[in-house]
Amino acid sequence: MSSASQKSPWETLSREQREKLFPTLTAAQIARVAAHGKRRQASAGEVLVEQGDYNLPFVVVISGALELVRNTDTGEELVVVYTAGNFLGDVTMLSSRRSLMRARMRDAGEIIEIDRRSLQAVVQSDAELGDIFMRAFVLRRIELIAHGLGDAVLLGSSNSAGTLRIREFLSRNGHPYSYIDLDHDSGVQEVLDRFHVDARDVPILICQGKLVLRNPTTEQVADCLGFNAGIDPGHLRDVVIVGAGPAGLSSAVYAASEGLSTLVMETTAPGGQAGSSSKIENYLGFPTGISGQELAGRAYIQAQKFGAEMMIARRAVRLTCDHKPYMVEMDDGMRFAARTVIIATGAQYRKLPVENLSRFEGTGVYYGATSIEAQLCGREEVVVIGGGNSAGQAAVFLSGTAGHVHILIRSEALASTMSRYLIRRIEENPAITLHTNTEMAALEGDGQLERVQWRNKQTGKIEERSIRHVFVMTGANPNTQWLNGCAAQDKQGFLKTGSALTPEDLASARWPHSRAPYLFETSLPGVFAVGDVRSGNTKRIASAVGEGSIAISFVHQVLHE
Ligand SMILES: Cc1cc2nc3c(=O)[nH]c(=O)nc-3n(C[C@H](O)[C@H](O)[C@H](O)COP(=O)(O)OP(=O)(O)OC[C@H]3O[C@@H](n4cnc5c(N)ncnc54)[C@H](O)[C@@H]3O)c2cc1C
Q1: Which of 176, 234, 305, 545 has the fewest CB atoms within 10 Å, i.e. the most exposed one?
Q2: Any ligand 1 atom below 6 A from CB of 276
């Protein structure tokens, strides 16, 4: 099918939107780009990038026309035509992922070609061009996602947890895909027949129009879409960062922007716990709040802009810490050598064993009690679950504003788990009621939490209340099992760093230096812990981001030792 006769999906965009997506460089800007690349003639029909290629060149059109097309089930589809002054590319140019489209000269002309490294140099050194390219790349990716113009088709059902898992994985990784809902799309049988799959296999992912995966793991999805294919395990990195939550992403941005070779490895998708927050209202600079996914998405692109490599859907399972360079081993057996390591694997809040919990997280179920949550509760009654000091502090704090605070604990009394002063404040406070031997039995509501039920474990009696705010303060478990005791930990397993390390900790770790450990340095020289995984950390996004950046300044010192 001739692409000339087709309509581009961007035709509905306004002129202003098109100019932002497909800007035209001036002669002076083209000259600055040309200094980094190769200027050459290209003939009509020449394919500059094949769909599925890795290490794509960045191309500026000087004359002639370049068309971007994609292969679909029904043939070739035109995406856009670039003419003089336009440039080819989206965020894939900055990562080592493969191209979602084919780029082919439509009319012969002159082009400038630049490789990925030189493009990164332009973006980092030329602020004006950097802004133009990054804005266009990000907006193009947003449009691809909005139009589902990727190399993946997901067949799923809204009643399947696997479908939700893969949809979340793809969108948190910023990967465009088309979605066909088997519950609602009547023409779907034809697609199922063509790929010889059954609706019972959902979710089904079709990669690049050929490979069919039935209910795949996130690792299989990442492999199929080539997320990690360009990452070379063969060379020694200045810093390997484990975990891409706010702490890991912040370390990645600072490390890569300061010229360190940087690899980030992440079990699921960038963003960590913050990625699941629907609206973060207390992060500096976002007065109207920002979703965790948006914050993470921006940080992810920012880290890649500076050249950080991102390994997705891979779990670090071991740190070889008895010799240098350190080795981080992944679940697929790959090993990465590192001069320094940043551990940013966070913690997992202990969850309530209650159905529907995830539906209400952030919309009635909270894991922290700050003045923001207090404002959300207003004068309404609230529930605090947990018998530790954090639960006690939250209850006392919330009692200042909430209508009434109910503390639920599963044990007989608070004495063994909470400080005496907090117990006294709770006992003396008429705005707080302690329910012992009690556990949460159900959360109910349509979209927002509306009602809760709690059960007395001794009598079995269930009580239902119209309460819309529940604070889960049952503690968190650090993601440190994979370290196998390599670095000193506190009683709960959080990593001890800097001045929190005792002489005994250092002696048993055979600390080799005359200097004391740096801020955020663990008992292993050159291995740092930042964010929620660190003992004594304040469990906030801003602290995680701050610690991630500070650690990099000490990484430089270690690298110079
Ligand atoms: C629902 C919710 C809402 C929140 N809202 C707010 C808020 O509004 N404001 C605020 O300040 N704080 C909020 N917090 C707290 C905040 O999200 C955390 O303090 C912050 O995310 C900690 O960042 P981190 O990078 O240290 O760890 P995490 O965010 O936990 O990230 C750790 C990352 O490491 C990865 N990982 C773990 N183990 C491995 C491994 N072995 N190999 C590779 N990767 C691994 C995980 O998949 C994860 O992506 C919220 C938390 C939750 C759960």
Answers
A1: 234
A2: yes
Instruction: Give yes or no for residue 1 having a pLDDT over 70.
Output: no
HEC string of 484-502 equals: CCCCCECCCCCECCHHHCC
**Residues 409, 386: contact at Cβ < 8 Å?**
yes
Taking only the tens place, the pLDDT of each residue in 120-137 is 889 888 999 999 999 999
Put the strands of the sheet holding 365-366 in their side by side order: 365-366, 470-472, 381-385, 404-408, 432-435
- Tell me how far the alpha carbon of residue 323 lies from the centroid of ligand 1, in angstroms: 30
Q: How far is CA 377 from CA 228, 363, 371, 404, 471, in A?
A: 44, 11, 10, 10, 11
State the SS3 of 234-257: CCCEEEEEECCCHHHHHHHHHHHH
| Rama region for 436: left / alpha / beta (φ>0; ψ in -120 to 50; rest) | beta
* 173 Cβ inside 6 Å of ligand 1: no
What is the distance, to the nearest Å, from the Cα of residue 158 to the centroid of all Cα atoms in its chain? 23
Instruction: Identify the residue whose tokens are 């193009």.
Output: 140
The span from the CA of 537 to the CA of 525, in Å, is 20
Q: What confidence tens digit (pLDDT) does each residue in 207-230 have?
A: 877 788 999 999 999 999 989 988
- Tokens 């500070």, residue located: 550
Each residue's pLDDT tens digit, 393-426: 899 999 999 999 999 999 999 988 888 999 999 9
For 28, 30, 46, 58, 114, the CA distances from 37, given in Å and listed in that order, are 15, 11, 19, 9, 4
Q: Tell me, in angstroms, the distance from the centre of ligand 1 to residue 346's CA.
A: 5
DSSP state letters, 145-159: HHHT-SSEEEEE-TT
341-351 burial code (b ≥16 CB/10 A, e <16)? bbbbbbbebee
State in Å: Cα 299 to ligand 1 middle.
14
Distance separating alpha carbons of residues 510 and 504, to the nearest angstrom: 10
What pLDDT score was predicted for residue 4? 41
Question: Which parts of 285-412 are beta strand (E)?
Answer: 309-312, 316-320, 326-330, 335-343, 347-349, 365-366, 381-385, 404-408
Beta strand 152-156 with 178-181 is parallel
Amino acid symbol at 167: R
